[in-house]
Amino acid sequence: MADAAAELPPALRDLAALVGLRENAARQRERSESEWSALIDLARRHRVEALLAAVVADNGIPVGAPTARRLARLRLQEHRRNIRSQAVLTEVAQAFAEANIPFLLLKGASIGERYYDEPLDRRAIDLDLLVGLDDLRAVTLLHGRGFASTGHAASIAGEPPPAYRRVAADHTLWRESDRTSLELHWRLSRNSMFPPWDGDFLFARSEPMRIGRLGLDVQVLSAPVLFAYLLCHGARHLWFRLKWLADIDRMLARLGEDECAEAAQLAGQARCGRAFHTGLALCREVLGSPLPAAHDPSQVHDGLIDAMMAALREEAIPGEHGLVSAWRTFRARLLLRDGAAYRAELLRYYLISPTDVARHGSKPIPFPLLVAAGPLLGLRRLLAKFS
């Protein structure tokens, strides 16, 4: 693993050195306008362009006028996007309060406000909210405010049917008027065993947080739970975006050793220790992040490190659309956690598409039949796409 970072393309190593929190030679090196242009394009794909702009501005890194203007423009765009998203959060929070629907803000501002010097520099694509399974009337409420179901849930008119709730973790909605994407979660992951924390567990381990610009108080995951969750989330996606590693890097700079230890304990109790400690090792390798005392190197899996480095290089989960590399990704995900229940859930993840369940799950079809029919329904969708 010691030479793992050397496998990354030089431009990606350069970008990682810049957006990490540690001082290094990369911040002193001069670059041509074409090099900066390529670096900014790479930062945009990894969703760290505002972070890159902040590093350049805050550290006095010399850049030409065209690069300076482009970085300033991208940073301003990100700030405006986050301000719009926070305005929508205020609207939704008020609507949920009036309907007596408790919710948690999972990521987004809950990370930026607590762990970034400038919260608006953190890229947030969606509003990620979590509600209890008994509060999915929130979907209908959001429909009444101009949101439409999209993605896997596009064919669902009202609340998600029971079968869909079993195979999906969230209901995605989109509002065209302000171009807002909102993911309404009832659990953290489609694989309910990774991590195996239900709504009751998460609400019991939440805490209030104020978004300073809005004066809005929201409930968020406590620091140890959030840290453990983000390490599981990144591992599930094989860390193909540098943004996720930057989140861990920023958290490591601000968390206390006791909070890191509690997070490691939570991950261990959830049998997600391998993913947790391998993610920390990857962050150390790529961004130079300091490892907490709770880090257990014996749980780091070199095969997972290799798979994660490959995903980071490709800027996508390898093989999402190819059978051979998809098999390699499946094998990597098998390594994330031990246990027959986790493996059964992972197999179901690959066999059943929430899109098919959304279309057929409201009909009186036994759930085991949906499981058996999953591959056939997927084949039918594939044939229809190319017909």
Summarize the structure in words.
The mean pLDDT is 89. The chain is an alpha+beta fold and 387 residues long. The protein is 55% helix and 8% strand. Helix 1 packs across helix 2 (33-45), helix 10 (242-254) packs across helix 12 (273-287) and helix 11 (257-269) crosses helix 12. The protein has a 5-stranded mixed sheet with strand order 1-2-5-4-3. Strands 6-7 form a two-stranded antiparallel ribbon. The chain is globular and about 55 Å long. The chain has a domain at 4-78.
Provide a brief overview of the structure:
55% of the residues lie in helices and 8% in strands. It is of the alpha+beta class and 387 residues long.
- Tell me how many strands there are: 7
- Percent of residues in helical segments? 40-55%
Largest sheet: 5 strands, mixed
Whole-number mean pLDDT: 89
Low-confidence stretches: none
- Number of helical stretches of at least 4 residues: 17
Query: Spatial order of the strands in the main sheet?
Result: 1-2-5-4-3
Query: H/E order of the elements?
Result: HHHHEHEHEHEEHEEHHHHHHHHH
- Name the shape in a single word: globular
